Amino acid sequence: MAARTKLLRDGAVLGITDTGEGLAVVFQHGLGGGEAQVAQTFPAGFRRITLECRGHGGSGLGERRPFSLQMFADDVLAAADQVGLDRFVAGGVSMGAAIAMRLACRHPDRITGLVLVRPAWSFGPAPDNMQPIAEVARLILDHGPDRARTIFAQSETALRLYREAPDNLTSLLGYFDRADAHTFAQVLSNIAADGLGVSEQGATALRVPTLVIGNAVDAVHPLSAAYTLAAAIPDAIFAEITPKARDGAKHFSELHTQIANFLQSHSKVRSLIPS
Hints:
Layout: E1 3-9, E2 12-19, E3 24-28, H1 35-41, E4 47-51, H2 69-82, E5 88-93, H3 95-106, E6 111-117, H4 131-143, H5 145-153, H6 156-164, H7 166-176, H8 181-192, H9 200-204, E7 210-214, H10 223-232, E8 237-240, H11 248-266
Parallel strand pairs: 3-4, 3-5, 5-6, 6-7, 7-8
Antiparallel strand pairs: 1-2, 2-4
Helix pairs in contact: 2-3, 4-5, 4-8, 6-7
């Protein structure tokens, strides 16, 4: 049964889900996602801890600005401390993968393994693939969500995504429909302009078991980003799975299998068992 607790950070009340048993994995959602996204993404059979980042799910925004991946990573580490985890596997999808990478490089004594699903960043800030999100945020801030949606739907970006990555377009349109669209647009803008905060040299210094998962037909999470990270991290396992845009059920089935097999293969290794 899932335990749900709260973490107070800078005036923000953040939600924590702690569910399952066994190997502890702190697994984070993507930008605009939350606990529901992670529950769909992560396989059963392991202990999974997820913090809903500021402005995501049921978590508040707090007092600090601007928002950043480092802020979110600090919050995640505080959540791990609150639930009593000293060492753990870190992972996540998209933004969650970036948070996991930051934790692994900046707190190597805490992180015993990495699961990076559909990473959106490699080693540079504000990558081109994040520009559609930045565009959506700018339109909402300038015009309000209703007018912004109309403008975006007629844009070259929307037309390109409709042709090349319809699943991305659906996600982007969802940002306009949020009840807190104007407020959350600032989160989108800040995070889209941010960077992984990890150099290629920092990635090559990692010495933890790592799984990197990517798929094609995804303009926001290009396969090239997954390739780049997998190539830089020593002995990383790379897996390409079916795109959601082609077959959602097959995508999640393959995703669960890849993550479960990776975690099971390492669950008996002493360094991966939380102390």
